[in-house]
Amino acid sequence: MTYSAENGEQWNTVSLSLPRQSLVSHLGFEPRGGLYRSGGTQAGRLLFDLIRSSGDGGGSAPSPADPYMQLAVYDLVGALFAPIEPSSGSRHADKLFARIRRIIKDSYGDPDFGPHEVAAEAGISLRYLQKLFTERGSTCSELIYSLRLDQAASLLYRRRSLGTRQPLSEIAYVCGFRDYTHFARKFRQRFGHPPGAHSESPGSSNDETVRTNPSESASRAHDFQAPTT
To answer: What is the pTM of this model?
Structure first.
């Protein structure tokens, strides 16, 4: 991109080269031709001042703040070239969201796996990841927990059918829960009864019974569909 700023009668021009894939992933759209406005814009002036002042560093050593400065530059570029129409239904965003779902389905069983890891694997910022889910009426964490609980329900149903004695805490861990108490709370919120009731054998005296096969609801909370283009 080339940016020109007017200072009285003097024009200052700078050329800024940025990694395209990284920039597009962060912004969620590809910058295409900004509009010239007399006197410039606040974002333009800030970006110009930032670039001009960076030349005064004299080759200073890298700083821990450098990655944040890079994101600040990306945000200023986004403010300069923001599209008039929202990009939530763009083909690029839909393909990216489909890839994110695949990433989550492949790794949700890891107890250390969360939104930060999803964003890193997809090569986008956490903020843009959250935006993609918000536009679809959900959150990344909800999808991760939904997949974990669906898997747990299937294993508990299998435990009941085969009459095995697999510890519930082991099932919780296999499905990505490090803390059984947390797992039990989430499970009750989702299915309306504790994990133990979900795996009770037929004829048990436990008043809490399983009403549905978990496979019937396996895609209920996490099967987000991208808009048709």
So the answer is: 0.53
